[in-house]
Amino acid sequence: MSEDKLEMSSCVRRRSLTMAEAHQAVAFQFTVTPDGIDLRLSHEALKQICLSGLHSWKKKFIRFKVFRHLLQYSNGIITGVYPASPSSWLIVVVGVMSTMYAKIDPSLGIIAKINRTLDSTSSMSSRTKNVVSGVLFGTGLWVALIFTMRYSLKVLLSYHGWMFLEHGKISRATKIWMCMVKIFSGRKPMLYSFQTSLPRLPVPAVQDTVNRYLESVRPLMKEADFQRMTALAQDFAVSLGPRLQWYLKLKSWWATNYVSDWWEEYIYLRGRGPLMVNSNYYAMIFLLGSTIPLCSAQWERMFNTSRIPGEETDTIQHMRDSKHIVVFHRGRYFKVWLYHDGRLLKPREIEQQMQRILDDPSEPQAGEEKLAALTAGERVPWARCRQAYFGQGKNKQSLDAVEKAAFFVTLDETEQGYRKEDVETSMDSYAKSLLHGRCFDRWFDKSFTFVVFKNGKMGMNAEHSWADAPIAGHLWEYVMATDSFQLGYTEDGHCKGDTNPNIPYPTRLQWDIPEECQEVVEMSLSTATRLANDVDFHSFPFTTFGKGLIKKCRTSPDGFVQLALQLAHYKDMGKFSLTYEASMTRLFREGRTETVRSCTTESCNFVLAMVDPTQTVEQRLNLFKIASKKHQHLYRLAMTGSGIDRHLFCLYVVSKYLAVDSPFLKEVLSEPWRLSTSQTPPQQVELFNLERNPEYVSSGGGFGPVADDGYGVSYILVGDDLINFHISSKFSCPETDSHRFGKHLKQAMADIITLFGFSANSNK
What stretches pass through the bilayer (predicted)? Predict the structure, then answer.
């Protein structure tokens, strides 16, 4: 970044989205020249909005080109014309032709006009012109019906009142709405069938966002501080806010989603700190769906994707297809082709290739063993090193193989997983291994790394910029269920099927790593090791009771856990903190996540009642119900586009492009999230029957500590009788202790359930 430019950096704060988004402490870096007037800087903001729109249209064009290539395949055709079907075109055309032969004009004169046009442009016979005119009109009518159905579905999906109904009570109007959605949704939708029918994420009113923000910080501020913040907020709402809002409105009309591209760029790709621990997240072995469609855009970059380091900002490289993976084992890299004789390898053949790697006696080349530490450390040294030493020759070819692979696999030499005889130590070790390993045995830039341990346990480490955790979780569930219940293994532990000696051996990647590069590797490894050693992780199963008993209390399981977290945090830290809970916005096109600010006035009142010996059970229970109801309302607002944090984030981005200072936004975006939480929702519950297969319960996944002086908590409610928790913090902070927090959380769960008259040990 040149010195003659003004660098405007503002540390936003560590955030937690689904699983791990929370701890992306990102400095916004804008290089706007200082010698321009407001009009010129406004042009910069308009330029960025135009670029966002062009980016959206570019993606649509790319999808269109892909669709053209897919026209030879039925899936591409079906997705392209959904909710209609290719056969419906024939039905419409035949119907039009039939009415024509019956001397009935269904077109109200349009067919005749087409016929006259053909008269002047061709020498077709009268009969042929009639047929062509009928086919053209029928095709046009068919296309018009498709667009009508899609638009009608978009209008229907823009209604979200159903989310705010009392649980178990559905009004007649909502039932009619659900039937209409089902009718216009068509039959057998595919992954991208609903993309064009999803509504756009709305831009909330500035005053609404300001009011909700003030409501959220009221219990966290002293009276004088709150009055000062109120004055800043109200001034912003009537002065600068409307001006910034105008740009966001413009962007929301032009771009597909007014948040997602800036969120990806400034929260993820511009982060210069390590991805390991700070951004990537993990999933453990075994994770365990509805009338309303969700956006599928994030699926596009699941495979064949890698994050490419840059000095100022990273980029996401996505290949249209990849026919190989790269496997790391004992300090060596192997390229493994996934196809042979024009077909995908079978499970037994893939096992054969893995065994060949395990049996390979070769040693790592100079500098090869710890090479992936470059992806675990700071981004700038990695970017410079990549440019200096990996731009040509064998290094470029080998790096291309890694970055263009479908995904990365690590055959880990350690043994991990749940051990009944030592639950606490085994789960903590398992979590830390998946989160960071030895800091050089996962390629943290890949969309995901499958980690296979020596004892056969598995896990996944995922990079966060390309998508949020539910996407990776959905893949993980499907992989585990398919592996266990469809593919299966023989009695001696091998994959079913036969080996194939004709398949070429995996190829060792070749490197020529100079000493200067090895020094950078060691520096990155040192940075990553310090970060990894500072992670205090506690992963444990809570078996005292689960959502089955919570539902008997006629309350939201998620709200129950969130209030238990508030109670545990207060007992642990002696104060309330700004709390982040992740929710999704995939009800909207290209939606990602939104924040639920779980620490509310209502939750604080409940917690204070729980620690006040003068309060009765009835009083505490009443305050719990009020707080739980408020939490559910906030969650629904976040899911339906009325959250506040993405709106404030985008207003801040616009202010930086306009080079205008907002004391209000500056303070809002610098507030730390000392308690960052995320639920991992089981999605494909139909894949697992936990009553018949209790051994396949999910351990879920987790992420690293969000704030240096706070906690990161992930949890998954499995079946009716189990909740798995993952708690992270930093050893370097004297105020936090993940195991101590875990004890407070267990006690908080037990204390709350007794309010409803249930024993803490009752799991029935």
Answer: 89-111, 131-153
Report in angstroms the alpha-carbon separations of 519 from 432, 522, 524.
Answer: 26, 5, 9
Instruction: Say what the pLDDT of residue 155 is.
Output: 86
The structural domains of the chain, with segments of one domain joined by +, span 83-188, 282-533
Report whether 226 contacts 232 (CB < 8 A). no
Return the pLDDT at 147: 82
pLDDT score of 5: 30
What local confidence, expressed as pLDDT, does residue 63 receive? 52
Question: What's this model's pTM, rounded to 2 decimal places?
Answer: 0.87
Q: What is 21-46 written as a DSSP string?
A: TTB---EEEEEE-SS--HHHHHHHHH
Tokens of 614: 């003068």
Contact 164, 636 (CB under 8 A): yes
Do residues 182 and 214 touch, judged by C-beta distance below 8 A? Answer: no
Which secondary structure element, helix H or strand E, spans residue 325, and what is its range? Answer: strand 324-329
Omega before 83 within 30 of 0, i.e. cis: yes
pLDDT of residue 290: 53
Cβ atoms of 150 and 83 within 8 Å: the answer is yes
Locate tokens 């870096």: which residue?
29
Q: How far is CA 364 from CA 109, 377, 635, in A?
A: 77, 21, 50
- Mean residue pLDDT of the chain comes to 86
Given a cut of 50, the residues of the chain with pLDDT beneath it are: 1-41, 66-74, 288-289, 764
| β partners of residue 534 | none
CB distance 311 to 380 below 8 Å: yes
Show the tokens assigned to 149.
Answer: 């159905």
Max CA distance (Å), the chain: 96
- Determine the pLDDT at residue 603: 98
Residue 255 and residue 56 in contact, taking contact as beta carbons nearer than 8 Å: yes
Quick one: pLDDT at residue 692? 61
Q: How many CA atoms lie within 13 A of 522 on its CB side?
A: 9
Cα-to-chain-centroid distance, residue 186: 27
Helices (H), 3-125: 38-70, 74-81, 86-101, 110-121
Residues carrying an active site annotation: 464
Instruction: Report the candidate in 219, 211, 264 with the shortest Cα–Cα distance to residue 646.
Output: 264
- Range 282-533 classified under CATH 3.30.559.70: yes
d(CA 627, CA 605): 8
Residue 554, classified by CB atoms within 10 Å of its CB into exposed (0-12), middle (13-18) or buried (19+), is exposed
- pLDDT digit string, tens, across residues 105-136: 887 888 888 877 877 766 777 778 788 888 88
User: If 0-12 CB within 10 Å is exposed, 13-18 middle and 19+ buried, where does residue 244 land?
Assistant: buried
Helices 38-70/74-81 angle, 10° precision:
130
Distance, in Å, from the CA atom of 36 to the CA atom of 24, rounded to the nearest integer, reads 31
pLDDT in tens, 403-430: 999 999 999 999 998 888 888 899 999 9
Closest to 447 in 3D by CA, of 320, 310, 302, 282: 302
The DSSP 8-state label assigned to residue 297 in this structure reads G
